[in-house]
Automatic annotation (TrEMBL):
InterPro entries: GreA/GreB_C_sf, Tscrpt_elong_fac_GreA/B_C, Tscrpt_elong_fac_GreA/B_fam. The keyword Protein biosynthesis applies. Residues 88-162 form the Transcription elongation factor GreA/GreB C-terminal domain. GO terms for biological process: DNA-templated transcription elongation; regulation of DNA-templated transcription elongation. This is Transcription elongation factor, GreA/GreB family. Keywords: Elongation factor, Protein biosynthesis. The lineage of its organism: Bacteria, Pseudomonadati, Pseudomonadota, Alphaproteobacteria, Rhodobacterales. Residues 1-30 are annotated as: Disordered. It comes from Loktanella fryxellensis.
């Protein structure tokens, strides 16, 4: 049969979209991060429930919601909750808010959070990011080297704080 008359030309079949990739890193989460993931899952279930079952127009949105639900269920199932308040207050670890001083005497605070919570623009970084890796294990007064694409920045640890 001529390829022009096959179903392949009707556009993508949206019964089931490919799964979104899961991160290869351990899924450490703060208590707030786990609550957010669970809320996102409830929201996507609600979105899915609101879509008509027999509508051709809802086929792609249904497939997207189902894909997102599978992704979020995977993130939640792989979650490793870590209570920041239970960490050693003297050293930088997951959940820490770390105040650093750079070589131009600028003070910045970074918080090490789960991958799903990370937002570098808001100074929330994932534990496997280069900055978090440089900070991990450091104590107040230590100087760490943050390897960035533009070179190495020295950061002095000024304060370490843990909160929930």
């Amino acid at each position: 049969m001529n390829k022009a008359f096959t179903k392949e030309d009707e556009g993508p079949q949206a019964d089931r979209l490919d799964d979104l990739p899961q991160s290869p890193h351990p899924n450490y989460v703060t208590p707030a991060g786990l609550v957010r993931l669970q809320q996102q899952l409830r929201d996507r279930h609600a979105d899915l429930s609101a879509l008509p079952r027999d509508s051709l127009a809802a086929k792609v949105p249904r497939a997207m919601a189902e894909r997102d639900i599978r992704f979020l269920e995977g993130r939640i199932n792989r979650a490793i909750p870590v209570d920041p308040a239970a960490q050693d207050a003297d050293a930088v670890a997951f959940g820490a808010s770390v105040t650093v001083l750079d070589d131009e005497d600028r003070q910045t605070e970074w918080r090490i959070v789960g991958e799903d919570e990370a937002d570098p623009a808001q100074h929330r970084i994932a534990p496997f990011s280069p900055l978090a890796q440089a900070l991990m294990g450091a104590r107040v007064g230590d100087v760490v080297d943050w390897r960035k694409p533009g070179g190495v920045a020295e950061l002095k640890i000024v304060a370490i704080r843990y909160s929930t």
